[in-house]
Amino acid sequence: MKIEQKLILSNVMYGVVIVLIGLFAFDNMNLVMTKLRFVEIADDLNASFLVMRLSEKNYFLHHDRAELNDILQKIEQTKQSIQDVREDIVKAIGSDELARLEAYLTAYGAAIERAASHGDGGPDEEALIRIEGKRLKEFSKSITQMERGRMNDIILGSKRILVISFSAILFVALLLGHFISQKILRSLREIEKLAHSISEGNFNRIEGFKTKDELGSVITAINSMSEELAHREEQILQSKKLASLGILTAGVAHEITNPLNNISMIAQTSQEISASLSESDHLDLMRKIDAETERIRKIVKNLLDFSKPKEAHPKESNINDVIRKTLTLVQNMIDIQNIETVINLEKDLPRLFIDGHQIQQVFVNLVTNAVQAMQPGGRLYIASRHGKGRESVEVTVMDTGKGIPPEYLPHIFDPFFSTKGEGGTGLGLSVSYGIIRNHKGEIRVESKVGVGTTFTVELPVQVRGLRTDEVIAPEESETVGKA
């Protein structure tokens, strides 16, 4: 069942229960109002009966027949009042109790009329008047008290039922609301987790959810999106590698040309003066040819390693070695632009558990951007050092280029955002950002227009089987001047 249908059904159930409780409360309220109306009427009757009894006592004291006439007059007025509100009294106490009240009132009136017809009346008439008057007053008082008690019982019972009903509704609502909200929140947490994972470059799936409601549809769509993004990331990463490779090709072609020219020159020289060369001279020329050939082989190998599409395979790596390999790839581009490089690689850095090829891709992109941002004669700084608390390693790439305007900095890592106009794809820094976040690291940028830009890559120390303070390679610090 869809969440929307569940919510509608639960709301309908709540509505029905609330309507039933409202009808019950309305009915009880009408009954209470009826009882209250009777109590008001009974209070008036009791007041009239009290006046009759006072007139009765005055008659016994003074034997004034006018008092009896007053009593008879009030009895008639009381009967008329009862007729006026007969329906209300019947609703409150029932027709039987009303008949008893009327019978007692009639009997009292008959006793008064008998006393009035016999002149002064004798002891029997007086006794009968007292008996009937007392019985009428006590009955009226008793039914009034009884109805007051019933009214209180109805109010207390209604209050109890309303409290229980609303408590039950509240409990069920909270229980059902908690169940639905927990289900929704659990799914939303998974969606939030996946969204953060995607923003960091980890394109995972949400597993274990097979609901047929709206959340199930959303999770299925997000899983499909995650798979598609993972596929697109591989394509973007590869295309960016190829784009960077194209930029490097011009410089690498020059680098390969130099050893080829040397090999050609050695071969020509060897042919021309081979007769006058000694065996040691021949061996020396062959060693030079072998050295130049090895130089070409290394250049080609670095290019192939850089261009191959590979899955992430983290392993213990020396970050300084990764930086050196990067410089091997971009050195000719740096030389063509006549850029001075200053490299400061700190010694004794811990090994990192990283994918060297992917991190190299990041450094190539940062160095390429730095070189393209500078005019010939600029200066490029590359440094590695311990991070704060020695729990990470930081690599800084700084240039003396034109800088990035402040309004562009918040978007510098956004996909397809470029400051190079048509000359940039806007994917390099976005891909680099994803790679670094995938390694649980951070990449930061600082820039000032007209001064230059500094990128800082921070990677956490995650050593497998090694101490974080293990000394690695010697000769870790170097400064390279203008090539």
Structure, described:
The structure is a single chain. Helices cover 67% and strands 9% of the residues. Helix 1 (3-62) runs antiparallel to helix 2, helix 2 packs antiparallel against helix 4 (95-117) and helix 5 (123-199) runs parallel beside helix 6 (214-272). The protein is rod-shaped and about 180 Å long. The strands form two sheets. Strands 2-4-5-7-6 form a five-stranded mixed sheet. It is built from ten helices and seven strands. With 483 residues, the chain is an alpha+beta fold. A hairpin with a 5-residue loop joins strand 4 and strand 5 (392-399). The chain folds into two domains: 3-180, Up-down Bundle (Four Helix Bundle (Hemerythrin (Met), subunit A)); 230-460, Histidine kinase-like ATPase, C-terminal domain (Heat Shock Protein 90, 2-Layer Sandwich).
Query: In CATH, what is the homologous superfamily of the largest domain?
Result: Histidine kinase-like ATPase, C-terminal domain
- Tell me how many strands there are: 7
Low-confidence stretches: 465-483
- Oligomeric state of the chains in view: single chain
Mean pLDDT across all amino acids:
76
Helix content: 55-70%
User: Could you state the order of secondary-structure elements as H and E?
Assistant: HHHHHHHEHEEHEEHEE
CATH 2nd-level architecture of the largest domain: 2-Layer Sandwich
Characterize the largest beta sheet: strand count, sense, and whether it forms a barrel. Answer: 5 strands, mixed
Describe the global form.
rod-shaped
CATH class assignment of the largest domain = Alpha Beta
What is the CATH fold-level name of the largest domain? Heat Shock Protein 90
Enumerate how many helices there are, as a single number. 10
Task: Enumerate the strands of the largest sheet in spatial order, edge to edge or round the barrel.
Answer: 2-4-5-7-6
Measured between the Cα atoms of the first and last residue, the distance is: 72 Å
| Beta fraction | 5-15%
Structural class by SSE content = alpha+beta
**CA gyration radius, whole angstroms:** 52 Å
Provide the number of structural domains.
2
